[in-house]
Design brief:
Two copies of one chain form a homodimer.
Chain A lengths: L3 E8 L10 H16 L8 E5 L3 H5 L4 H8 L7 E5 L4 H14 L6 E7 L6 H8 L15 H16 L3 H15 L13 H5 L19 E9 H7 L4 E10 L14 H14 L8 E3 L5 H10 L8 H6 L16 H5 L6 H13 L12 E8 L4 E9 L2
Parallel strand pairs in A: 2-3, 2-4, 7-8
Antiparallel strand pairs in A: 1-5, 1-6, 4-5, 6-9, 8-9
Helix pairs in contact in A: 1-3, 7-11
């Protein structure tokens, strides 16, 4: 396999974007990415699109051909990839493999989700299609319930405190303030979180990511070509996927996602790196506790010590390992099928030195994208190529 | 890229399969394919699943991880591919590319759809998600309307007769009689078709494929490995995809699908073959007129002569180019996200000499799978490998 790089990125804001459907959003992010790479749409040889709930929420499928048509692309192959909230990174990975193996030279990958035009109950039902309907769905379980149970178990098992869990929200809301793409751009104080109305114990609203619209895109090509075409190309050191348990009754414990552990093992191995080499992380904080669990599953902290690491400030922007400098899903928003490429967009911006919360000279970043109750996880490691 | 082969196939019947959800059906077809190949599920290195309407009709996504969990597979990558009615072949192609390029050795591809548990109006709405909702959907157009317009135009343009169009149904219903997997297993006479109640002029019920449940699966591996593992392996000479127009207002005429023309060009070129080399075809006869148009777009007959070819008996089982010896979508059924792999299953059965409508010593077969109003087309050319 030959080395592959990202030569263009684009993203809509992640927010309630009225009057724009999934095709509009995907086209907007794609045009940005094509403009960033200075590549004409007719040069693109394949389109891999990630999306989760478009069929259920907007009644529109075949998004790939619709986007390609709108962009005036040629008669190229296109598929939509679905893997719940990791759909975008799954699409991205198929594109990476196609370029790495010489099937294509220039590929557009785009993730998109349009959620806010549907009622909250319809969105909740759509998201629940990532649970096992034959077991969890039929019990009325939803994702805030799943992650709240995991929070309770993490507190019980390791003494993680309610305050530590709340600190995820405080940190990510603070990071979101400067991010022009973020849905929430205001800080939140501990007292406000602890005094807020419960959603699913121990969670309040501030522990849960919002319902969002959005799209993000990346143009990929062989690294050799990238060096000629761009002065700001980003190398894809690895992009690996693993399934885990698609329902929580299959979890051996309630404090870890085996899909993350396995995908991380593969991603570090493919890249020839270890956790020590990673300068910062964008990870899947769909709920506050998820950031703590993910940071442990990825190997950055011992199991049970994620809350403490947070309390010590290690994951702040100025900490040893900044986590979610973009604001994460909690602050930036979570248009589910776009999120993975949104993370990759944020990592690229940091590595290019163009981020609103710019870190000091980062060289390698990691993006972690989780689907379902750990049904599938996709991890991407990126580095500067200039 | 190294040569790739199919070493195991499986299929449920295509029919109304009560009490079985999409995961059950996909698992059933997969177990058959694994048994056919004598490969343990733990040996599988990736699972590519094709599905179109599961989110809308059953509220269940993340089908790949659910199927993999049920089969006891390892922590492998898995995605769902969607491209309307061509979803299964899109999933198959990603699997073929992964094996051809050495990413994986043994891959399971499975297509599945569960449609009959929903109301007909809900199914019609789900299928309409493969139309452009911003244009066609908002006018109330559905697929029987699209294809009926194409039939009218084909009749007007080339003098294709109502009787010729009906002959597609007569032939495919006759072929379905012996196929144990087919939903309809009774012949139908010309008078019955011509006297039946209209659906969308000029179509009656016999011009339209049914609503079906079903799943089909194939195990793929490098041809070198296939020769060691199997005495009945089938070579994948090519599997190519092209997008076309995702809405009918973009069609330059109403008698051809550019996606088919482009995908065929690529598929023949990759395989180093021409139409003369193909012994039989399974093609996407979602409506009677589709078979006529597809047979022309694929290059087997001049544009406008598909109806005449049929009348001459050229596409009968004992004709020069048998088309849909399985009974096709019209007789065998059309569980949309399973259909592409269902066609590949039928082609393999013919090439292995195991088909209920066995042709005389066929060596090369072609499967043609179309999504939307020609939004995307996937074509696979298979040959004997023994």
């Amino acid at each position: 396999m030959r080395p592959v790089s990202i030569i263009g990125i684009g993203s809509t804001p992640f927010s309630k974007l009225e009057g724009k459907g999934p095709v509009d959003l995907a086209v907007e992010a794609s045009i940005q990415a094509l403009g960033d790479a200075e590549i004409h749409p007719k040069k693109i040889e394949a389109l891999y699109l990630g999306n989760f709930t478009s069929g259920i929420l907007t009644g529109q499928e075949i998004l790939g051909p619709l986007v390609a048509n709108r962009l005036g692309m040629r008669a190229i192959p296109s598929i939509k990839a679905e893997g719940a909230c990791s759909s975008a990174t799954l699409a991205f990975r198929e594109g990476v493999l196609a370029v790495a193996n010489g099937v294509h030279e220039l590929v557009l990958t785009v993730g998109v989700e349009k959620m806010t035009s549907a009622s909250t109950s319809k969105v909740t039902a759509a998201l629940a299609s990532a649970l096992d309907q034959s077991k969890e769905g039929s019990c009325g379980l939803t994702f805030p319930g799943v992650f709240a149970m995991m929070a309770r178990r993490h507190m019980h098992e390791f003494g993680t405190t309610r305050e530590q869990i709340a600190m995820v929200s405080i940190k990510n809301r603070k990071n979101g303030v400067k991010n022009p793409l973020a849905q929430f751009r205001a800080e939140v104080a501990m007292e406000k979180i602890l005094g807020a109305k419960p959603v699913t114990e121990p969670f309040v609203l501030y522990d849960c990511c919002p319902i969002s619209d959005g799209a993000a895109a990346a143009i990929i090509c062989p690294t050799e070509m990238a060096r000629k075409l761009s002065t700001k190309a980003i190398s894809i050191l690895s992009c690996e996927v693993s399934i885990g348990n698609a329902s929580i009754d299959m979890m051996s414990d309630m404090v870890s996602f085996p899909a993350t552990v396995e995908a991380a093992k593969k991603a570090f191995s493919t890249a020839g790196l270890s956790t020590k080499d990673i300068n910062f992380v964008e990870l899947h904080d769909c709920f506050t506790i998820a950031e703590i669990i993910d940071s442990e599953d990825l190997g950055f902290f011992e199991k049970g010590e994620g809350g403490l690491a947070l309390e010590k400030g290690l994951t702040q922007i100025d900490g040893k390992l900044p986590i979610n400098p973009s604001g994460g899903l909690l602050s930036k928003g979570h248009p589910v099928g776009a999120t993975g490429l949104g993370q990759i967009y944020e990592v690229c911006k940091q590595l290019r030195g163009e981020h609103p919360n710019q870190l000091d000279n980062p060289k390698i970043g990691l993006a972690h994208n989780l689907g379902g109750t750990g049904a599938v996880c996709a991890i991407t490691i990126l580095s500067r190529n200039f």
